[in-house]
Every structure is written in structure tokens, then in C-alpha cells.
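Suppose a classmate hands you a notebook page containing two proteins, each written out with its sequence and a corresponding row of C-alpha cells. How would you begin to make sense of it? This section walks through that situation. The first entry is reproduced here exactly as it would appear on such a page.
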Amino acid sequence: MGLCFRWFSKLFGGQNTEEKSLEKILGFKPNNIEFYKLALIHRSASFISPTGELLNNERLEFLGDAVLGLTLAEYLYLGYPFKTEGDLTKLRARYVNGKNLEYFSKEIGLDRLIVTKANIHKSVHISGDAVEALIGAIYLDRGMEYARNFILNRYVKTCDQLQNEPDADYNYKGEIIEWCQHHKLEFRFHTVQNSFPKNSRPFFSTILYIDNSPAGCGFGASKKIAEQAASREALYACRY
């Protein structure tokens, strides 16, 4: 692994500049800079090391996603003692959506350091995934406390700037569609208007299928509300 990382570091010409940029983003000096360099390699720029390892940031993204989810769960649980489980779920989903991750990446300048062969401007997931990979790198390099502090003191505060819209306006359907497209999964909404006595208000029920498996269900006074509710349930289930 050491040989692999020493070879990998040759990709970064002007190593001092890269390290200084990372230190400014992190707010501290890394113990092992190689974790952070790996966090910047999008899968489109993957390469094979001399030892046969496929190098990109996907494994760090997986780890960082879990650390981010746990930290936010604890933060919301302690910060909102009277919120129901459903309310806490909605709050957490708002913090981890692609829009917030992309915004944070640009806000701290992480997007400018990402190594990718894809068009970063056409996908929020490239810069957003790098944020989660960065969190994974912090966890491996410095432990949970540093990762937690970075999330709460940097990520959460930045995301709060985008939390002004009413929760009802949040587009859960758009978020789950984006998630499915990113993971190349088929999806479909099956919505039914329930039968009620004449002159009663209509009532809709929706089941969202992802790869032909039920992923979420929702109900509401309109098709839109029912689909939003099903999308919200599916989004939570898919990410956590």
C-alpha cells in the first residue's frame, strides 16, 4: 500500500500547492495526506496502481456517507427532542441531498481539486460524492471526533444557508429520480385515485418501484403530494 500511495502522489504536480489547498479546506494539517488525495479521484479518472489496486474515491465515499449520516442523526436527535422520527428523517434528508453537497463543495473550493474525466458541471454527484469521500478521509486520518467537528462546524453551518424554503416545497421526487439516474436504476410511480362516495374529496396513493421492487409508498389529497411522500420514504430507505 505504501508503494501504491507513493506512486499515486506523483500525479499531483505541485504537491505543496495541493496540500496547502487541502489544509485551508480542512482547517487542520492532515497526518496522512494520501487519504485526501485519494478522496479527490472520481471514478471516471480511476487508474490501476503498480500493485494492481483500482484507485478512486468510491470506497471513501461509502465510508464518508455513513459517518455523515450518523453524525447528522445524532445532531438532529439531540437538537430536536420533540420531533418525531418522521420529522427527523425529513430534516436529515434535506441535509444530505445532492444540492447541499454540491453547494458545500463549491463553497469550500473542493470542486476545483477533483480529478475527473467527466464534466463536473453536468452532475452534482461528482462534487457531492467528493465531499463524502473527504469526510471518509478525515475519519481514517484523524478519527471520528475530527470528522464530526468538520461536519457540524463546516458542513451543517453552510447547509443552513440553504434551508430557508418551507419543508413542503422540498422536491423529494426530484431528489430520488436524480439518485436513481446516478445509480443507473429503473424507477416508476404507480398512483391510484381511491374511490370514495360522491362529492367526497379524492385521495391518492402512490407506490414507487425501483428496479421493480417497492421502495416507498405515500398518500395525499393530490397525486403530487402522494408521489412526494413515496419519494421521501424511498430516499431515506436508499440512503440509510
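The notebook's second entry, a different protein, reads as follows.
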Amino acid sequence: MGYFDSLDRAADWLALVQNKNKGWGMSRGQASSIVNTAEAIYVLTRANRHYSKIDEGLAFIEARLFPAIEKSGPRTRYVVFALLAAFDHVEVVDQNFVKRCVRWLMDARNTDGAWGHDAKDGESRLYPTCFSLLMLTKFGVDVKDLESAFHWLVSKKRTESGWSFEDGKKASPAATAMAILALRIIKDYNEDIFTKPKEYLLETSHWNNERENLPGTLWDHCTYMWVFPALVSLDVNPYAPTIAQGVRFVNGLVDDHGWNEPFGGVTIRSQFWAVYALDCLANAFDPAIHIYRIDSERTQPTLSEPEFVHIKIRGPWAMVVPRKTYRLFTYLILSVSVIAFLGFHRLLSSISRWADFGVAVLFFTLGYVLVRKRRKLFPYRLLWIILGCVVILSFVDLVFGVSVLDLFKKLEIFRWNQTQV
């Protein structure tokens, strides 16, 4: 099942689980929230279907955002996600609502210019800062007005490898990817600040959630959602091996409702995480450029050096042999087997038919083992059809005493007689 098929299934599932108040919760039957509703709108928009559900979700956010802030607390993420939902639909969203969200977010900064999980909480954090920078610049806020936030973000790069969610912790892929995406707003992809973080992200091996410890809770961040777009923003090919590994992980989460959570269960955010990651790759892939680059990268290793076959690589008889040499040797062995089977060597010497049959079987067995070990290097079926015919002919030779060589000689005598006539 491809990305767009899964996207359609995810959109259909989201349309079914919308709550009566026209919002979405984390999953079917759960209370509606601003964040989950924005996530659902994002997915439905990429699927380009269920337009009425999108309009209803936008209306829910407009009506509930600021009352929710007054009731539950000044959560930065509520406003950030409201802007995320509104960005694709600026033509239908109330512009006064958008301006109010932007103004609220600008006023919610701490004294260091960055954002915490709550407005003016005095504890600036990576996640709300990066997401706020991404959304505010999308809505036209001048980067000069956000300069202190960018400086704060640069200062939080504690190690060469990248960023972490908490001071004193080692770098993590998700945190590093968030920081890269935010800093790419003001920096070119080839600047020194990205060199080591790019190498670090290219070594990503785990794609599950990363958890940020907050007072009284654990906050889940999705690795592939952030790492895919971060690598693409650094001019990494969308088909690079690291991304391909991550895509295989995401594809393993596919079910009839779209995508599951990495640890199981279908949720609204699991659809959002997958679509945010995969849509980035789909948009980054340009057939006019990347098909050529794929072919070039596949061809270049073949042109620069031979491909090798590794034999008994972990044993005392370890060998590394060029594939062409391996093929040539195998074909030579099989050719000797065919010659012995058909008796053509008797043109040079008189050996018992039973003796040359034994030699033929010996070489045939060796050739069979070599082909069997590396089936992809040989036209497997064609090879065994030819050898099967040879074995049948040699069996006829042994049983009836009529070999291909005898027939060949008789044909030559007949031709000679014809020319004399």
C-alpha cells in the first residue's frame, strides 16, 4: 500500500471519528482538543477530501482556542497548532483570529526571547520555541523581531552533535531535527553549525518516540516526523539510506485506518506524525532531478570499482573476490562439466565413459554449489534448463551408447560424402 492510499484511509477514518462538537480528541470517543483537531485538519488537507470536516474543525478551533487558554492555562502549543491549522486555509479563517494568535504568541515569550510550554513561564524550552519560530515566520513575522529566540536556540547547542530537550543531556535526533528546521529559516544548509548535526542525523537508527521529562508528565516527540524534513532541509536526498530506513519503519505502522502509533494503537496524532514526515518527502522528490541522481549514484560505484563477493567472511578461509571473477570461474567449471558430460574431450583422449561421467558430476556439483551460493549473479532458471538437457543427453549416452559426439562425427562424415558426390 502506497503513501497516498494510506493517506486516503487515514482521512476516511478521521472523518468517521470526528466528535459531535466538530473537534477531534486523541482517538475515537476522547474529548476534543485544539491540538488534535489541528492535526486532523492537517491530514485531511493533504488528502484533499472531506472539505466540510475541515471547515467544521477550523470553526471549532476559532470558537474554542482562547476560552481553552483561559480555562486550562496559557499553553503555547494550543496557539501554535491553531496557526498550523489556519495556515493552509487563510482564505476562510477569520483574519482577526489569525492576528490575535500571532500577537498572543509574540507576547508569550520569556525575557530571553524564547518560549516555554506556557506563556511567560520563565522556563524556555526547545519544542515550543522551534515550533513557534516555524509558524510565526510562515505568517510573515520578520526574523529581526525573532532574533533573540534564534540566539537562544544557537546557545542551546551543547555538543557538536546537536541539541537535547534538557540541559546536560546528550543530543537526541528529534531535538536536533527541530533545532535544524528552525535555524534553517535564517541559515543556509551548508553552514558550519549544521555539519556535525547532519552527520548525527544520518546515523539515526531508532525511530520510536522520544520522551521529554516535564514536571508531572512525559511529553512524546516523534522522531521520524522531525528527522525527515530536517534532513531534506539540509539537501539530503529524499531517497537516502537513512531516510529509506525510517520510511520502512513508518510503513510497518500502516493499517486499515492509516498509521498506528510506534508502540501500537491508532490515534489522530499517529496520522499527523506520518503525514507530516512522508508529505515532506513527497514534496521534496523532483523526478526531473532525483531520478537522474538515483541512476547516477547507482552507476557510479560500478564505474569506480568492481563489486565484490564475500566468501566465509567470518571464518579462517575468508576471501573477497570481484563478482566478474566469481562468475568467470563458475562458468568455466560448468563448461568443463558440459564438455565431460557430452564426451567432447574424447576428441583428444580415450577415457572410459564411466570415468568422464564421474568427472562431469564432480565439476557439475562444484558449479552447482557456486551458483546456488550467489543465485542473483546468474540467469538461474536458464542455466539449469541447459544443464538439465545436457544431463539427459549424457544419460542417453551411458544407457544406449549414443553420444552427442558420435552424432557429431556421423554428421561430419555425411557432409564429407555429400561433397565427394
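A careful reader of the second entry would note: Residues 301-305, 413-418 have pLDDT under 50 and may be disordered.
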